[in-house]
Design brief:
Elements (H helix, E strand, L loop, with lengths): L20 H17 L6 E3 L3 E4 L2 E5 L7
Antiparallel strand pairs: 1-2, 2-3
Length: about 70
Amino acid sequence: SSALLFSIFLEPKRGSNHWGLLSLLASIAVHDAIRTVGEITDPRIKWPNDILVNNKKIYFILYQIAG
């Protein structure tokens, strides 16, 4: 088994009331990239931040809003 794991820190320029959309937008971007570049034809987004292939989670995003 193998995994590609990484962390990224983003500080959005929009107000914090928009930050909740980031995980959804990231999931859509990863979903579209998998369909475009990869040979996987049936990725599914499980609300709001998981991507499943053959009912197995292959991607998820966690975010924390600093106060």
